[in-house]
Amino acid sequence: MNARSILIVAHAYRDDTVEAAARIVSIIRQQDATPVFEKGDRAELAELVPQLADVAALGEDVPLERIDAAVVLGGDGTILRAAEIVRGGTAPVLGINMGHVGFLAESERDDMDEAVHRVLDGDFTVEERLAIAVRVRDRSGAVVYETWALNEASIEKASRERMIELVIEIDGRPLSSFGADGCVIATPTGSTAYNFSAGGPVIWPTVQAMAVVPISAHALFARPLVVGPEQKIAVEVTGVAGSHAVLWCDGRRTHPLPPGARVSVRHSDEPVRLARLHPAAFTDRLVRKFQLPVHGWRGPSGSVMTDAVTVIPPAHRMTPDEGTPTA
């Protein structure tokens, strides 16, 4: 069997991240596997830790299709960058939180060694998350930009002092037009990110849906919408010359949107694959990451809250026949 190749995605902005990257390289090599860096990451990290200069480079020494998994050191922004790096391959992404919230992360820095060993052993499950495909056409109808997003595509005003005029379309039919600061189209994964800040709904990862959320709209009907994965969403930028907008995808990829531009969004045929080590309820993740108050909760008989995670003793767990999956 071929040796496993593990991509490590990290940046050199924080000392603890650099130290963690060097440690993970050592663990991977001890297990006779191949550590791999993206070329830019390797150059930055090697300036601080010269021993990392001989780590294999993605694309030069190891092709993307040979990457078995990506271990990410950082917060949600770094995980989004890793998802972009492995796009087109099959490697799942496992995040080790080195930041604050780290909503997408699967493990914390204190559990880093165990997480890496489990990745090397293939001891994880893979969760596929819905992504969206985004296409921009100009006034003439020509396609001028195409990209994708895991969290969201947002159409935003390019200048602070002027609103933009938008028309929302669902499945080829106009729904509403209004002046606004912008509009967010989010996936379930992105529902706890920009969508959440804009007043959109939290969508459970198991729900295949997209949220359409106007931002500071001047309109009577400008409520968040939730549509199915097969719905086709479009946002047209109207208004006078000079009222330019800009498209952002996951806060990483951007394209200008002059009046007349049309942004089409649909579900992508290529999901993002996240590696999971712990089968945990999404409710517990929300409580833990957002530090939600749950004081006074009684719950099923025998349930307790430990570090904001519900623990139900085996004797009290319902069976599938009782209507609730076992934990």
CATH class of the largest domain: Mainly Beta
Nearest-angstrom radius of gyration? 22 Å
Which H/E pattern describes the elements? EHEHEEHEEHEEEEEEEHEEEEEEEHEE
Number of domains: 3
Rounded average pLDDT: 89
Describe this structure in words.
The protein is built from six helices and 22 strands. It has three domains: 119 residues, Probable inorganic polyphosphate/atp-NAD kinase, domain 1 (Rossmann fold), CATH 3.40.50.10330; 136 residues, Tumour Suppressor Smad4 (Sandwich), CATH 2.60.200; 43 residues, no CATH class. It has a six-stranded parallel beta sheet, with helices on both faces. It has a six-stranded antiparallel beta sheet with strand order 9-8-19-16-11-12, with no helix packed on it. The two termini are 35 Å apart. Helix 1 runs parallel beside helix 4. The protein is an alpha+beta fold and 327 residues long.
Summarize the structure.
With 327 residues, the protein is of the alpha+beta class. Helices cover 18% and strands 34% of the residues.
List the helices and strands and how they pair.
Elements: E1 5-9, H1 15-30, E2 34-37, H2 39-48, E3 56-57, E4 69-74, H3 76-85, E5 93-97, E6 107-108, H4 112-121, E7 125-129, E8 132-137, E9 143-149, E10 152-157, E11 164-170, E12 173-180, E13 182-186, H5 194-197, E14 210-215, E15 225-227, E16 233-238, E17 245-249, E18 253-257, E19 262-267, E20 272-276, H6 282-290, E21 304-306, E22 309-311
Parallel strand pairs: 1-2, 1-4, 2-3, 4-5, 5-6
Antiparallel strand pairs: 7-20, 8-9, 8-19, 10-13, 10-17, 11-12, 11-16, 13-14, 14-15, 16-19, 17-18, 21-22
